[in-house]
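Response to reviewer comment R2.3. The reviewers asked that we include at least one raw input/output pair. We reproduce the pair for Protein co-occurring with transport systems (COG1739) here without editing.
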Amino acid sequence: MPDPAITDYASIARDASIENEIQRSRFIGVAVRVSSLEQFTEHVRLQRRAHPDARHVCTAAVVGAGGEASRSNDDGEPSGTAGAPMLQAILQQRLTDVGVIVVRYFGGTKLGAGGLIRAYAGAATDALAAAGRRHRVATRQLLLTLPIADAGRIEHALRVQGLEPEVTYGLDASLVVDVDADRLASVRDQLASLGVEHQFGERGFREVVSPRC
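Raw output as returned:
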C-alpha cells in the first residue's frame, strides 16, 4: 500500500542506453524502468546474457515511491568504485523505480579508483539523461453505487471535471474514479453537493507527461 504522505515522485520516462569509451574501455550504460528489485534482477540477467564477454556488469537500483529499497553491486570492480557511484547518480536526481546497469569491456588500461568512479557515475548519469524524466502523482479511488437513473448525470458531472469514471451496470450502477490527491477534497465536496455518497478504494500513482519536479 503506497504511503499516503507521498503525493508525488519522479522516475524515468523510458528505457535507454548509451556507450562511452574511456582509455579503450567500453562502458555501456542502460537505464530501465522497474517496479521491484526482483524485476531489476531479470534486467541484469538479460544484460549478462547479451554481453557474455564483458569483464564487469555493475548495477544499482532504487524502487518504491519513497525510495524504500535500493541495491548496488560492484561486480568485481574495487569496492565502492562502481555500484555506489551509480546508486548516487540515481539518488542525486531524486529518481525511483529505476535501475541502471553499466557493462564494461576492459580495454587493457587500469583507470584507478578515481577514474572508475568517474566512469561508472558518468555512464549512469548519461543513461538516466537519455531515459528522460516522468512525474507521478498520487491518486485515490472513489467508489460510488447509484440508482441506474442517476448514473448518467453523475458520470457527466465527473467528466466535466476532467475525470474518467468507469461505470458498471447491474441492479445498480457502480462508478470507480481515480482522483489526484491534490483534487480529492474538491471532488468529494462536489459529490456531497450532488447528494452522492462514496467509499474509498485503492491508493495508487498516475504518470503525467509534463514533470513538475
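Strands lie at 8-11, 16-22, 25-33, 56-63, 69-73, 98-105, 134-146, 166-169, 173-180, 199-208. The chain has five helices and ten strands. Further pairs are available on request from the corresponding author.
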